[in-house]
Automatic annotation (TrEMBL):
This is Flavodoxin. It comes from the Bacteria. It holds the Pfam family FMN_red. GO terms for molecular function: oxidoreductase activity. Gene3D superfamilies: 3.40.50.360.
Length: 207
């Protein structure tokens, strides 16, 4: 929890290949999730990962100008992680893969009860693209996030894909389809519910 009042916090890690200030569909759909989280009283922040020097590797700090340690502190402080990625050749972006590799370092980081440091935190995923593969991309990311300790709520993925081999982006839409907007709302609602439950009842201590 973020403070003595028990306010939940959320961090969006946007894994677009486009540096700021370029428009990003991955950033936009993540922001739509955050809008619903803010409506539920969650304090939210977003980081576009490509704007930062995230070194390759699987250590907490790779040194030599690595900016991941600063982002990591935000990750550890957040109750809810919103992981947002585009689809590229049927896979999460290369930035998404690098972030997942850096999160892998948390497998060896335990709390005082021997639990993974990320246990008790909630993760949801948003995906955009103009090719097929949203379910596969979400599944790959969910597995990685669960491996490092995150808990995945029911219906924790929202996505939009345009026509195959098309050029329309999520940000080009005049209006978000009802099915997508209702799913986005459900993702945020379920994330808040689960994060509230886990904040009140930790996982059992590891023996």
């Amino acid at each position: 929890m973020s403070d003595d009042r028990g306010q939940l916090t959320a961090l969006a890690l946007v894994c677009s290949l486009k540096p700021s200030p370029a428009p990003s569909s991955s950033a936009l759909i993540a922001e739509h999730v955050l809008e619903h989280l803010r409506g539920a009283g969650v304090e939210c922040e977003s980081v576009r990962c490509v704007d930062h020097a995230i070194a390759p590797g699987v250590e907490v700090d790779m040194g030599d100008g690595d900016e991941w340690p600063t982002i990591r502190q935000k990750v550890l402080a957040a109750d809810i992680l919103v992981f947002s990625t585009p689809i590229w050749v049927g896979h999460p972006s290369s930035i998404a893969q690098r972030v997942i590799e850096r999160l892998d370092a948390e497998l060896s980081t335990k709390d005082d009860a021997g639990r993974p440091i990320l246990a008790g935190k909630v993760a949801v995923v948003s995906v955009v693209g103009n090719e097929d593969g949203a379910h596969k991309v979400a599944a790959d990311v969910f597995q990685a996030l669960n491996d490092v300790g995150y808990t995945i709520p029911a219906q924790a993925n929202t996505y939009w894909t345009g026509p195959a081999m098309g050029s329309t982006d999520y940000g080009d839409l005049d209006e978000v389809p009802d099915a997508v907007s209702s799913t986005t709302a459900a993702v945020a609602r379920n994330a808040v519910h689960l994060a509230t439950v886990l904040a009140a009842a930790d996982y059992p201590a590891y023996e």
